[in-house]
Design brief:
Elements (H helix, E strand, L loop, with lengths): L1 H11 L3 H29 L3 H7 L11 H7 L3 H33 L6 H13 L4 H11 L7 H4 L6 H14 L2 H9 L4 H12 L1 H17 L2 H6 L8 H17 L5 H8 L3 H17 L1 H14 L6
Length: 305
């Protein structure tokens, strides 16, 4: 027994040299992951003429904020689109977590009578859907959600794949004896879910929350279908409209001297990179938030002996 303990201790004790090597490898891997975004930021801060002359450089010959000036020339429209996206992302993620967590918990319990039916019901929606036209008719005509924020929230609120992930997490990470002990103490199902299951499920909830946040933040298709009001256009759709405006001027520059003049004043490539930065930078701050709950979820809740 002592030899086994000693071998385990020796396995976990890494020499200083290997520790340095492993840290260097981890640092290089992290740099490889971060470098593409940093390079996009550098390009967005490069002068357009310098970029056309010298190509992509890590240290541009001339820095410029013209790309961001061009994007922000839309003024209140861009800030308003940021506000719409933030509201849709926060409200949508909250609603999505509530619906998915309740659905997944119900079908994860063997005592639930209709467990198999709702399992199959969720799986079928992963394989088949009604199609774009029936979905559009339901959202816009039957539910009357056209030109409302709910048209951007409700279609993405439920996701069968996320339900399957969280159902599996509940089944494998929430011990049945804990739930039975709660029932013996007189707790009902909602109390058990809120006080016992959720604290044990924070890693799974954080994962689903992160997926939902990314889905809402990057969504532009629902806005294309259901939003005509310029005051309700989300960020991704707004940036796409700016991109389409640049592409339109490029395609028609040969037929109009006015378009050629406008084209020369537009930071084309750097503006595209600026749009990537503006669309990506805010969502980056969501990762530390969810990472905090990953760590917290691993330490909250345990079976006391």
């Amino acid at each position: 027994m002592a030899n086994i303990i000693r071998k385990k201790r020796d396995f976990h004790n890494v020499s200083r040299g290997w520790n340095i090597v492993l840290n260097i490898i981890a640092g290089l891997f992290a740099f490889i992951c971060v470098f593409p975004f940093l390079f996009v930021v550098i390009i967005s801060l490069t002068d357009e003429k310098t970029l056309a002359t010298n190509g992509y450089q890590l240290i541009p010959a001339k820095w410029s904020l013209d790309a961001y000036r061009y994007v922000f020339e839309s003024g209140d429209a861009l800030l308003r689109s940021y506000g719409v996206t933030i509201v849709v992302t926060l409200v949508g993620t909250l609603i999505s977590l509530i619906l998915i967590s309740l659905y997944a918990y119900a079908i994860s319990r063997k005592s639930f009578r209709y467990r198999n039916f709702f399992n199959v019901f969720a799986i079928i929606t992963m394989l088949f859907n009604g199609g774009m036209i029936p979905t559009y008719m339901v959202v816009s005509q039957l539910l009357g959600l056209k030109d409302t924020l709910w048209a951007l929230i409700l279609p993405l609120a439920m996701n069968a794949f996320y339900i399957m992930i969280l159902r599996t997490f509940y089944s494998t990470s929430v011990p049945e004896p804990i739930i039975e002990s709660g029932r013996i103490d007189g707790a009902d199902d909602f109390y058990i879910f809120l006080r016992i299951v959720l604290p044990l499920s924070l890693p799974g909830l954080a994962t689903i929350g992160l997926f939902s946040t990314l889905g809402y933040w990057n969504d532009w298709f629902n806005a294309l279908l259901y939003i005509d009001d310029p005051n309700l256009v989300p960020l991704q759709s707004m940036l796409m409209r700016i991109e389409n405006s640049i592409a339109f001027i490029q395609q028609n520059s040969a037929n109009s001297s006015l378009s050629m003049t406008a084209l020369q004043s537009i930071p084309q490539d750097t503006a595209r990179m600026a749009m990537v930065v503006l669309a990506t930078l805010p969502i980056i701050f969501a990762y530390p938030f969810f990472q905090r709950y990953f760590v917290q979820g691993l330490t909250v809740g345990a079976v006391k002996e």
